[in-house]
Design brief:
Length: 161
């Protein structure tokens, strides 16, 4: 009667082969997830952006009514950069600050009375957002502007433009 273990009986722990299979399977899952995540973000990003932008219908800019005539204020309407322009004649305009050519951010140039895209030289009219020159194919998106005693309220056009 010997106390030595019989080589044919299974051990109580996990075998080396089972452990390696589980470890390699886990590593494979982590690798696959690492490859799949950027693809998911690429595909889901436009949907998330559209939902985020659609959720915002109005932005209130406190003390923006104090903006000097002939100057502009950059702010975010949802996820989009937007320009609020107080013209010398006292009128107000709010336009998307995203160029319709390649989505660069445009800037208001008060001295030249224009909105300019530095990426490719696009020029827009600061009152209407119409594309005047350069490669932009469409005008800038316009927003409704309401000026009160304490703030400027910028909202989407009723047509959704």
């Amino acid at each position: 009667m010997s106390n030595a273990k019989d080589n044919n009986t299974p051990s109580a722990g996990v075998s080396r082969q089972t452990f390696l299979r589980a470890a390699m399977g886990g590593a494979g899952l982590v690798y696959a997830a690492g490859l799949a995540y950027p693809v998911y973000r690429y595909v889901a990003s436009p949907i998330e952006k559209a939902a985020k932008e659609g959720a915002v219908t109005e932005v209130t800019l406190k003390d923006a009514q104090k903006l000097a005539p002939g100057s502009a204020l950059m702010f975010r309407f949802g996820s989009r950069p937007t320009l609020l322009i107080h013209h010398d004649d006292g009128t107000w305009t709010a336009l998307s600050a995203v160029c319709t050519h390649l989505a660069c951010t445009v800037q208001y140039q008060a001295d030249k009375k224009r909105i300019h895209c530095a990426c490719h030289g696009g020029v827009y009219d600061p009152k209407t957002g119409a594309n005047i020159s350069g490669p932009p194919p469409k005008p800038l998106r316009r927003y409704e502007v309401k000026v009160t005693d304490v703030a400027v309220i910028v909202s989407r056009n009723p047509q959704g433009a």
